[in-house]
Amino acid sequence: MSKARRNQRKSLRAKRKANKTQRRSDRKEKRFNARDQRKTARLSKRQANKLSKIYGDMSPEEINELNAIQPEVGAMSAELRANDVPINDEEDTIEIASKYAVMNEDIEDPVEADDVEAAYSENRDPDVSDFEHAEKRSNSRSALKAGLTGVTAALGSYFGDLKQKQASGDNLTPKEQALLDAKRDITKQAVKNATTFNLQQVAPLLILAAIAFFVFKK
To answer: Domain ranges in the chain?
Structure first.
């Protein structure tokens, strides 16, 4: 066999090995991402109870609507902070979704901006009593809960369009790209945290197994 032929075969083997490694890496990343999506796409029981205390009892349908946008909450929070929009509670999906929908000029407001302001702002008219202020805040939060279907539908359509635009290879605006980058980074960090947590759980067991091996070997 000629030297050129051997080099060609060697190159092909190296290429197949690299492709196999890449496919294995891609499959692993997809599994991590899928697991992370499943984790982030469900409100915890504690979080759901917390929202019920703020907005009143949440129906299963309303919880499902919040779950539908849960994977994007981190990216929405990042953009809100980048635009200096305060977030009172990072676990309040309704607050984050409502504020994001109102702030984003590409989304036709599904709820009233005045309700968003009244529901979460600490500022109030000094001539208004504490009771009136609390009542107005409560009424505004009830209005936001009532408008939840419109908010989640608008956000679902917006994020769906962005994903389709990216998949089609169309040029994204800087804001759109920043939003998708934020979601990607948050997902990667969640995967990293989950992996680190698993290693922290497994490491002590490995140490104990090693000790047991040497003890019984003796």
So the answer is: 39-172
Residue pair 55/145 in contact (Cβ under 8 Å)? The answer is yes
| Dist. CA 125–CA 17, nearest whole Å | 69
* C-alpha to C-alpha distance for 69 and 89, rounded to whole angstroms: 17
Q: What is the dihedral of CA 151, 154, 160, 162, to 10 degrees?
A: -110
Where is pLDDT greater, at 193 or 195? 193
Q: Are 58 and 51 in contact (CB under 8 A)?
A: yes
* pTM across the whole model: 0.65
The predicted-structure confidence for 62-111, as pLDDT tens digits, reads as follows: 999 999 898 889 889 989 999 999 999 999 999 999 999 999 998 988 99
List the Cα angle 103/169/18 in 5-degree steps.
120
State the amino acid at position 93 in one-letter form: T
